[in-house]
């Protein structure tokens, strides 16, 4: 019978010195799963607030967004949860979770692109 191992034991078991593992992100904003994103950045500090930036294509939320960001504006003040897992050990992968609050949404467009939301 296999013992259920804790997350900290899984982290220790899956550590490979000198190897950077490929990570899978599961991103959820207020119950809505974000399956397609361009970039995710997380900065954490012991002295300051944590900071995250999530960049999405203009149509990642289902409808094409423009500079008005009608659908994206609904995420302001909502909870964002990101689960980090190793891609190559999906079932036994240790999981780390970040929880934050969306404090800003914006739109950027460069050259001939359709635009990004962040």
Assess the beta-strand content as a share of residues: 25-35%
Uncertain runs are none
What topology, given as strand order, has the largest sheet? 2-1-5-6
Q: Report the major sheet.
A: 4 strands, antiparallel
Helical residue percent? under 10%
Structural class: mainly beta
Give the topology, please.
Layout: H1 7-14, E1 23-29, E2 32-34, E3 39-43, E4 51-57, E5 79-86, E6 95-101, E7 107-108, E8 116-117
Antiparallel strand pairs: 1-2, 1-5, 3-4, 4-8, 5-6, 7-8
Describe the structure.
The protein has one domain (7-117). The strands form two sheets. It has a four-stranded antiparallel sheet, with no helix packed on it. It has a four-stranded antiparallel sheet with strand order 3-4-8-7, with no helix packed on it. The chain has one helix and eight strands. The relative contact order is 0.24. The protein is mainly beta.
What structural keywords apply?
single chain, 118 residues, mainly beta, 4-stranded antiparallel β-sheet, 8 strands
Offer a concise description of the structure.
The protein is mainly beta and 118 residues long. It is built from 1 helix and 8 strands. The protein starts with 6 loop residues before the first helix and ends with a strand.
């Amino acid at each position: 019978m296999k013992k259920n191992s804790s997350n900290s034991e899984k982290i220790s078991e899956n550590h490979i010195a000198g190897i950077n593992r490929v990570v899978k992100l599961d991103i959820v904003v207020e119950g809505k799963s974000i399956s397609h994103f361009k970039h995710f950045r997380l900065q954490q500090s012991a002295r300051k607030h944590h900071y995250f930036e999530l960049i999405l294509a203009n149509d990642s939320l289902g409808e094409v967004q423009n500079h008005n960001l009608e659908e994206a504006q609904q995420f302001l003040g909502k909870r964002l949860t990101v689960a980090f897992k190793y891609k190559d050990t999906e079932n036994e992968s240790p999981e780390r979770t970040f929880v934050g609050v969306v404090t800003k949404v914006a739109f950027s467009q460069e050259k001939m692109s359709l635009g990004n939301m962040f």
